[in-house]
């Protein structure tokens, strides 16, 4: 098990490291590299936002983390971690397009959440009383208890998303990754989603990575922002990313340096 030692103003804390990317590069057979020299750690309890322009490599990065792709060079280390129900490191991944079950085989919210235990008990395995309590707790923690016996085909998009989050949580993952989780929700739904993320982070102790094109929401609702455009251009506290630094990140990939300077100057005049 890997730990990170943090020393601050006289106190010492041991933080479990869940994931380490070290100088990761991915190149396809033709064209420029999709990712270059990407390095960062993810620790227990983190809420991390990953942002970047279209084509920056965000989805490619997720596929590398969950093991769907292998880096051309560099390494991705996922040390053993005992929190998961299977007694090892667990990563749950919710892609942008949510397709939980075939509509020809309807299932209830309770049944779909229980599917999160299949990796441990198998499709034909029998649920124990502890499993049933875990399923119920997951449904309650995403605020879907009154829909526990509803068919998932009857749910709204937001309710379906919460069902899949509960399914991911029931297996007690160490890390939960969500790709563009607020792409299809309105402002009220977005606020409710981020409140849910904070809640499950606190209740389950699960680290969360949120990938989004909406950098402003990530700045407001995450503890750490990683901004990429094939390379890591920023990795740090959201509150430190403002003014000219934010302007440079958002516009330098598609506008000239002269225009970026003009935008920065306009922003300073507006503040003045």
How would you summarize the topology of this molecule?
Blueprint: E1 3-8, E2 11-26, E3 35-43, E4 47-51, H1 58-66, E5 73-77, E6 91-94, H2 109-114, H3 118-121, H4 129-141, H5 157-169, E7 175-179, H6 187-204, E8 207-211, H7 215-221, E9 224-229, E10 231-236, H8 243-251, H9 257-271
Parallel strand pairs: 4-8, 4-9, 6-7, 7-8
Antiparallel strand pairs: 1-2, 2-3, 2-5, 9-10
Helix pairs in contact: 4-5, 8-9
Structural class: alpha/beta
Q: How far apart, in Å, are the first and last alpha carbons?
A: 51 Å
**Average of pLDDT:** 80
Extended strand count: 10
The helix/strand order is EEEEHEEHHHHEHEHEEHH
**Shape estimate:** globular
Share of helical residues: 25-40%
Counting copies of identical and different chains, the oligomeric state is single chain
Spans of 5+ residues with little confidence (pLDDT < 50)? Answer: 82-89
Strand content: 15-25%
Q: What's the arrangement of strands in the largest beta sheet?
A: 6-7-8-4-9-10
What integer value in Å does the Rg equal?
20 Å
Count of individual helical segments: 9
Largest sheet: 6 strands, mixed
Report on this structure.
The protein is α/β, with parallel strands linked by helices. Helix content is 35%, strand content 25%. The chain contains nine helices and ten strands. Strands 6-7-8-4-9-10 form a six-stranded mixed beta sheet, with helices on both faces. The longest helix is centred in the last third of the chain and has 18 residues.
